[in-house]
Predict the 3D structure of the following.
Amino acid sequence: MRRLDQYAAEYECARLRREDGILEVVLHTDGGSLVWGEVPHRELSALWTDIGDDPENEVVILTGEGASFCQEIDVRSWKSHRIATARGWDKIYREGTRLLQRLLEIEQPIIAAINGPATVHAELPVLADIVLASDTAFLQDAAHYRQGSVPGDGSHVVWPYLLGFNRGRYFLMMAEKIDALEARRLGVVAEVHPPDRLLDRAWEIAGELRRLPTHARRYTRISLREPLRRRLLADLSHGLLLEGAAMAAAVEARTDR
């Protein structure tokens, strides 16, 4: 177990601050909106562990920097890891399983404030207990099926669970964009606010939760997350293996030409 002052400066992709037991986590890349790549893929599972293990974190706010939550991918950041090989995909597999499992293992309530478009790993903020969104935000799985990849890194579990089986499959296979108001109508998002109001509202809710008894607050989080945690435990590994197999097949097809 480590204190905030021991782990806060260790993460390139996250800026942390805490007031009155409320931990604000801002995901970013070099001070701008988060660009998905090798660094956040590697760092975030360890960050979730540090957050969950720190008893001084009583409520967590998760948001992004700038105008988008995460809308870009730095493909070059993985080049040296050769992820289409068995050894390279083993890294993705290990990090990918921990990325979602350790997020759901956090026992403190989590409030997500989706500050803008979330098209890469959009499942991360919607796994929070309370999901708020900017009216400029939309949700999409843009990096998988329509790009020739399997949405096997948890998207295949989370979105059918939240949207319903048929709508979830459509969302993934058509790379559908769901804007904040539609996400609210569908029950994925609880509240929609202007960008300049979003984080203030997250802190208001966090303050309300912070005043509740500690054990009731934590045990409620545990009880409500459990069905989805069990489903991910059952299906996440299978999806990641299928994603890796499809990637290897694509590389093999290009080599054979």
